[in-house]
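Input/output pair, single chain:
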Amino acid sequence: MTTPALPGAPLDASLDPAIAARLKRDEHGLVAAIVQQHDSGEVLMLGWMDDEAVRRTLTEGRVTFWSRSRQEYWRKGDTSGHAQLVRSVALDCDGDALLVRVHQIGAACHTGARTCFEAGGDLGAVVGPDAVTQASTTTTTTDTTTRPDDTQEDR
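Output:
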């Protein structure tokens, strides 16, 4: 992907090399960005970012994504008015996903729904036991070792 020069940006504007080194990108050079409402914890959407989109998000205070379908950058809210104002950006333990905490103005989904997951709908998964039931049927342990069913490949 080539990065277009930003108006008024220095020609050498790029993602901090220390941050870039921590990112694990997919075969297209992208990392998943989970967007969450900063005060409620509500998960709003999932988007994709390359290094330039991450740089813009970290430095401009608005969320920028790479559109896989249009093959261009898009800043959430520029056409809809439904902006995402950055509150924080965190990298997960594996380096392959970002958590972007935002103040969402208007709908997060292009359908007009508050979240993309509201628009997509519930799939009817079987609900696991609640914490009280689980605690009474299992032994509590303080072992922090990785279990065979909790490997990095499962994430």
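The longest strand covers residues 84-91. The longest helix spans residues 51-60.
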